[in-house]
C-alpha cells in the first residue's frame, strides 16, 4: 500500500490539492515524514498535517481481515489460479502453471533459452532503469485498459548491472527495493502472474569477505581457492527471498534442463528440454528428482554454477 497514489484516494479537496502542489504523490511520501517536517513542507499547522496523515492512513492501510475472509476474497477474485506454460510436465509440477498474484523468476546463463520461454507471451523490454521505473508507474493503468493476463520483464538484471556500474554499494539496493516492491504489488492487486528473467554473474569466493577482519589470516589468505570464481544468480539474496517460484535453466550431460528450484507447491525436480523454432519443448514430461546441493546449484556444461 505504500505505493498507492494520493490522486487515487478520496481525500478532501483541500488536502488533495495541497499534497499535489507539494509533490507528495504516494502514501509513503506522506506517512514517512514526521509531523513537524510535514507541517514545514505543507506550510500548514499541526491540525492540517495530522488530518493529512489520518486521511492517507485510512485510504492506504488495509482493513483488519480474518484468514477466512482473505481466502474467500482470493477465491472470488480468481486468486490461486495458474497460467499454463503448455509444457505439460512443468505445468503439472507447478500445480497447473505459473501462479497468479506471485513473482516467478527464470534464471540461467546467457543463451540457454530464458528469452525463448519469455517470448511466448507479453514481454516488456525497457532499455534503462529510468525507462523501467516509468513503465512500472504506467503499468497499473495499462493492465486494466488492455486486460493483460501476464507480465514478463526481460530482463531487470541487465538494467541493474548498468545502474550498479554508476552507483556506490550503499545506493545500489534502493532502485532494486522499489522495483521489487512495485512488481509484487502489481502481481498481488492485478491478480496476474509476473515473471522476471534473471541473469547469472561471475563472483570470486573472496567476495564474501566485505571487511578485512572477516578474513582469517591464519589459514593462508593467499591460497588459490579463495580467488576461484564461479557464477551466481544476479540481483542477490534480497531478490531470491522475494520471488515465490524460481525456475533455473541449466545444461549438463549434453542436455538442457528446466529445474524447479523453489516452489511452495512442488519438490525440486528437473525436466530436459530443447529450444526449437517454435520455442521450448520438453523432451520428457517425466520429472527428474533433484536432491542435496543440486537443488541450490546451477550446472553449465559440466561447470558447477552456484545459485
Automatic annotation (TrEMBL):
<dbReference type="InterPro" id="IPR030548">
    <property type="entry name" value="RAD51B"/>
</dbReference>
<keyword id="KW-0067">ATP-binding</keyword>
<dbReference type="GO" id="GO:0033063">
    <property type="term" value="C:Rad51B-Rad51C-Rad51D-XRCC2 complex"/>
</dbReference>
<feature type="domain" description="XRCC3/RAD51 homolog 2 helix-hairpin-helix">
    <location>
        <begin position="7"/>
        <end position="59"/>
    </location>
</feature>
<dbReference type="GO" id="GO:0000724">
    <property type="term" value="P:double-strand break repair via homologous recombination"/>
</dbReference>
<protein>
    <recommendedName>
        <fullName>RecA family profile 1 domain-containing protein</fullName>
    </recommendedName>
</protein>
<dbReference type="GO" id="GO:0005524">
    <property type="term" value="F:ATP binding"/>
</dbReference>
<keyword id="KW-0234">DNA repair</keyword>
<dbReference type="InterPro" id="IPR058766">
    <property type="entry name" value="HHH_XRCC3_RAD51B"/>
</dbReference>
<keyword id="KW-0547">Nucleotide-binding</keyword>
<dbReference type="Pfam" id="PF08423">
    <property type="entry name" value="Rad51"/>
</dbReference>
<feature type="domain" description="Rad51-like C-terminal">
    <location>
        <begin position="131"/>
        <end position="281"/>
    </location>
</feature>
<dbReference type="Pfam" id="PF26169">
    <property type="entry name" value="HHH_XRCC3_RpoA"/>
</dbReference>
<keyword id="KW-0539">Nucleus</keyword>
<keyword id="KW-0227">DNA damage</keyword>
<dbReference type="InterPro" id="IPR027417">
    <property type="entry name" value="P-loop_NTPase"/>
</dbReference>
<keyword id="KW-0238">DNA-binding</keyword>
<dbReference type="InterPro" id="IPR016467">
    <property type="entry name" value="DNA_recomb/repair_RecA-like"/>
</dbReference>
<dbReference type="InterPro" id="IPR013632">
    <property type="entry name" value="Rad51_C"/>
</dbReference>
<keyword id="KW-0233">DNA recombination</keyword>
<dbReference type="GO" id="GO:0003677">
    <property type="term" value="F:DNA binding"/>
</dbReference>
